[in-house]
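Session log. Operator J.P. requested a structure for one protein chain; no other inputs attached. Running the standard single-chain path with token output.
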Amino acid sequence: MKRSHGSYSKNSRNLAGKGRRTIRQRLSSFKDGDHVRIAASPSTKDGRPFLRFNGVTGKIVGRQGAVYKVELTQGRATRTILVSNAHLEIAV
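Structure written below.
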């Protein structure tokens, strides 16, 4: 059978490889100014950023409801995206 090429097909490919996020990772909180890495979790679809931003490092600027505003640069442009805490990790 031919593989599906829908909008979520690339996000759910390596579900077995990445595994589930732990409760600690899902409930993690960040402060303004923290440097974070965007790591899209295939097990949670809410608050997931666009796939282009996966693996990019940015800075927490604030909150908007239940999600965080993350500021990152792409070339000369500065982007502000909204990401859930389930898809963020502290950048080392």
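Operator note: The first strand starts at residue 35 and ends at 38.
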